[in-house]
Structure formats: structure tokens, C-alpha cells
């Protein structure tokens, strides 16, 4: 049976090429792997191998021919004894190019300015009559891990100095004693490697908590976080998930300069497949970390060293979990909406207190989760206050605030009475000098000034 | 065909030999067909063929037990076929169709099968090495006696994370066989131009990981080395390195003009060391099979591959809704 040999596509972008040279002639016997021709693609000259065995019955495209479309028959292979004279004449005019008809794909239209208020979950995170006790964020994080490790044998903690040292920032204090070295594991200083091992163990059915001593060091491991942890569920068509928590302090501490002071909220926020949490209070730290450990997806959990020692009221309930993706209204107000998360909340709340003294009533929203983001809560609030200021420690270009601004502009443009202002860290690497560091960070005064600007005071 | 050195009489049954012949032939014919479909524009993007390296996975699969895991790089079609994944599902993933193993969303480099304990298909050179050690970590944690085969190439062997992983795998006695598929070229860079030492497995010695060189063109030698490595891991002695010397006949990917090596070099390996021809000779010279027996196997494989190709063409493209699924569990 005669087999047509077609002009091959020899690169991901090749549509046509030059048949530079035939290395076989009519009547030659070829077997799989023999070079039949040289073909010039858009990138290089390539050798074209035979796939099937047979005899070259007819060469249809002469060497030197340019612009031969992919899938054009260039030769005919026949079996021994087959009648060559019955074959079609050389040089077919119309190239049998598989030109796929353009298919109309319906892409969901972007939402128009939303006239109706979005549905927002305003339910309380714990019973109103729960007994409250003052605890530090540090204690809350430790308790969250300990509770989840008690409840699920597959949960383990891995990181630098998490076991015998009791945690570089003492978050894992006491966990080695309670759970032993099988489940609380000191790693060498090798972020890329241990992040990859943890992700692999999650593919293998465990639920790792990976502590980065700080998120600055997780830049060494970011390929494993994004390419391996975040994308595998999608790439596997839903077969292979990655239940893992990457946690540790993020952003500026104090006087540790440029390489130890970066806020990664905006970086990780961009990645589909990741969830990103950045709590402010101790209760949220506890309830969100417990939820993150139970979540079947990879979660980046951004803590803050300055907040570790700060105390907040924590409800004394049996199993405090807070759903990921739900913002919290810290303070109700009617004149302006201030949206923040993590340590930015400190400036937002301080500003709101001072503004109240001047008669400006700010509503303060703590996003708590950056991805998925509770944009409904923001829009709902803006529909009431008509003004928005965002506060974060990270850099301005491509910030969390700039994303919020774009969402509000698209979905609640008609409700805005002033341009949105993003209060951010300054667009500089973090300086060491005390006075310069102070200037580089976002401040309460800047938030107050921004609020006055959007309220035209 | 040049004379082949057979060092010793194979200690395997005729049925086993026939099985290896069949498995290797399936990979080769599948890859040839994939190359053909790529040429027709039915497969897009990157497509890295395994032709020439078949004895590596077939030999190691023969050393594996049910429940053992495997993970590899983007040159992964052979691994999937060797561990029993459906050829039609693999081919339909190459063509980006609904019937593909990742529903058309992963492509040639990203396929997985929980059922067959195949953990990918990873496109970032070297990234699968810590992932493989992590699979072994999970098995050790669970105490289930399983071993993970973690494949990577001579190119990946120069990635830092490989040595971070060697260190932890040795430190924690992880049951992982590191399989260096040394096909002598990291894309277009010959090993001598990229790697400071001739043998890569030596690097394991710095971490206290034993290892050895294996002739990757001899499926029986690979199987024997694999059994030794697996026994080492299963005995709780930690990782083991197999540096398997092999050769890829085709380019790094489909768009590789292969100017970094001579045609004669490739032809010499094909003629003198081909892993499939090797087993074919053993079968015929040992009178374990007749030419007709082997022709019947060839025919059967051709049929399987043609069916896979047909399925990969007929299976529809994924529905547009699939764009938005499988992002979160």
C-alpha cells in the first residue's frame, strides 16, 4: 500500500519550509530512521527521517522548492513489488494544509459596573458569647499547628530550626516534645531542596507544614512553590493535588535591611492554584492556619515578626477555624473604606482612631486572605462610603492595592466619589539606617493624609 | 549488523525476554508515531522522544514491585507506557484532547497517574529530584516499604537542588533510587562540555550514597542493577544511585537540528548497541522465539499504536469550560 510522506512540522512555530535537499532518490529502499531529506525551517536546517519502511516510489516536490506548506505530500513510499506507474503525478498544486477553521470561543465577558450589591458573608467567625482570652500571635500559631497535628497523623512540620532550637522565632515551641522527631523535622539550610521534598511528600499523601525562617529565603524555593505545588492539579487534569502550607514571617522586621525585609503578598497573590493568607490578629492567625492546614490546596501563609509578640483576644472554643477567602470588618464606618491586611492593619486602625477624633468615620476591612480575595466585601463597603484607601507594606508597582483599585474601578466605578489611593511601602530597597527605614515604610500619617484627600478634607 | 558482545547467558525466562522486547518495541513505535503526528501538526509545542533509551525504563520496571513510585522529567512517554498507562490516553494528551490523561491540559511534559503511581512528567529540569525524594519521604513516614524511582538526565545532574536532595535523602535514609539517565547530551551540550567528571554517580559518594554505572542499552543489565538498588532501599539503607549510560537517537526535542553530534555517531549506536535488537538477538539465538513469533509481536504493537493514534485524533478537544476547572481542589 502506498504511503504519502507529508511535509513535516519540525518546530512549534513552523508553518512552511524549504525542501532543501533530497538524500534519497526514486527506487531507493528506506527503513525507519534513515535520513530522507534536509528541510529548512524557520529556525534551522533539519534532517528529516523516514518513519516507515519501503521504497521511494515517487518524489513529488523537487529539492530547492521554497514555501512548502506543512502537511503537503512530498513523496510516496511503496512496498516491494508495488506498481509505481499508478502513482499520482508530481507537484500537487493544492497543499493539504490542515487549516483549522477558527472556532468561536465564548469568553466570559468582564463584569460590567455592578449595580447590585454583592453577596457578602457577614456571619460571625465564632459565637458571640465565647469566652475570650488574651494570647500572642506566636501562641495562636503554635496552638493551631499543635491542634491540627493532634487531629491528623499525616500533618507534619518541616523547616530550619523548627525542632531542637524550638523555632527561630519560637513559633514551634514545644512541638518536638509533643510530636517527636518524626513529625517535627529540622532541615539543613536548603530551602529549594526541602520545599521540593515537602511538595513531593504532599503528592505522596502527607500534609506538610513548611516553615521558612523568613519568606525572603523562600525565593530560593519559589520554583517548587509555583511550578510544582500550585500548577500540578491543573496540569494533571484534577488527579494530583498538593495539600501543603508554606508559612513564616514575611515583610520588614526591624533594621534588617533590603534582603530580609520584602513583602511577598503581591507576588504570590498572582498565582492561580495558590491560596494566600496574611493574618493580623491572633484569633485570625489561629483560625486561618487551622483552615489552611486542612485545605486540600497549597497555601502561602504570610506572618509578621513584629506581630508575633502582640496580644489579641482569642475565643476559647474547641475548634476555631475561619474560612479562607472571607474578609473581616474590624470597624464599621460611613465616610471612607480603608482596606488592609497583615501588619498594614495596624496603620489602618490607628489612622481610623485618629480620624474619628476629627469626625471622619472610617470603615476598616481586614482582607485576611489575599487569594481568593473577598472583593465583594470591599465593593459592598465602597457602595456605602464611596471612597477607598488601601494600605500595605509592599512596593507600589503591581501591589495588592493596585489590583483592588482595578477591581473597584471595573465593578463599582459609579459609586466612587474620589480616585482610590494606595498607601504602600516606598519604591526603594529597604535601607538599614533607622531614619531611612522609617521613611521607607508606610505610616499612619500617610494613611490619614490619603483619607483626607479622598474625602476632600 | 555488527557483532555484539554478550557477556553472559541471561538468567531470565523466554517469557520475560519476550515481555521486554514487547515493552521496548511499544515505546519505540509509539514515539515514532508521535514524531509523525508532530510532523503533521497534530502535536504541538515541545515533544521529547525516548527512542534509544527504552531499555532504561523497561529494565527498571522489571525490578519494581506493585506500589513503587516513579517520577521523571519532560522526556516521559516511555516511563508512562512502561508502567502500564494507556497508550491512547498518553497519545491523546500529546494531541491536546479531552481523552488525554490530563484532559488535554498538561501536554507531553505533564502527565500523571495515581493508579499507576506515576507522579509526572515535570518540565523544569531537576525539579523532579526533590519531588521524588519527597515521595520517598512520604513512604518512609508511612512505613509502607515502597521505593521511588526518581529519574533525571545528565543535564539535570548539574542543578543545585539535586545535591540538596542527595544530602537530605542520605541524611534521612529515604528509600529512593536516583536514576541518572545519562544520554550524554544536555540538550545540545555534550557531557564533556558541561560536567567536570566523566562519571556522575561518583558525586553521590560525597553524600555517602552508593551507586554504579549501568549499561543502559542492555535491558537485563538494567534490571539486575535495578533489583540491587531496590533491595538496598527496601532494606532501609537509604538512597542508591544508578547512572545508566544510554543514548537518544532523536534530537532533544522535535525542533532540534542536532548539529552538535555527527550522523555517524548516531548511526553507530543504532547499529551496534540498539537495545531492542539486542533482545531480539537473544530471543532468536537462544531459540526462545522464531522470526514469526516476533513478527506477531510487531504486528500487535503496530495495532496498539495505530489505535492510540486514531483515538488521539478522534477524541475531541476539551470543552471550553475546562479552562476554568482543576485550579483548586
Q: Layout of SSEs?
A:
The complex is a heterodimer of chains A (457) and B (329).
Chain A (H helix, E strand, L loop, with lengths): L2 E4 L9 E7 L6 E2 L4 E6 L4 E5 L4 E6 L5 E5 L3 E6 L53 E5 H15 L3 E5 L15 H5 L4 E3 L4 H13 L3 E5 L10 H9 L1 H4 L8 E6 L15 H5 L5 E3 L4 H13 L3 E6 L1 H4 L2 E5 L12 E4 L4 E5 L3 H14 L4 E5 L2 E3 L3 H11 L2 E4 L8 H13 L8 E3 L10 H7 L3 H11 L3
Parallel strand pairs in A: 10-11, 10-12, 12-13, 13-15, 14-15, 18-19, 18-21, 21-22
Antiparallel strand pairs in A: 1-8, 2-4, 2-7, 3-6, 4-5, 6-8, 9-16, 14-20, 17-19
Chain B lengths: L13 H26 L14 H10 L5 E3 L5 H6 L4 H8 L33 H15 L5 E6 L6 H12 L4 E7 L2 E2 L2 E2 H4 L16 E5 L3 H16 L5 E6 L17 H11 L1 H11 L5 H24 L15
Give a brief rundown of this model.
The complex is a heterodimer of chains A (457) and B (329). With 457 residues, chain A is of the alpha/beta class.
- General form of chain A: elongated
What is the CATH C level class of chain B, in words?
Alpha Beta
N-to-C SSE string of chain B, H for helix and E for strand? HHEHHHEHEEEHEHEHHH
Order of strands, widest sheet of chain B: 1-2-3-7-6
What is the terminal separation of chain A in angstroms?
87 Å
Say what the CATH topology of chain B is: Rossmann fold
Q: Could you give me the name of the CATH homologous superfamily of chain B?
A: Thiamin diphosphate (ThDP)-binding fold, Pyr/PP domains
**How many helices of chain B does DSSP assign?**
11
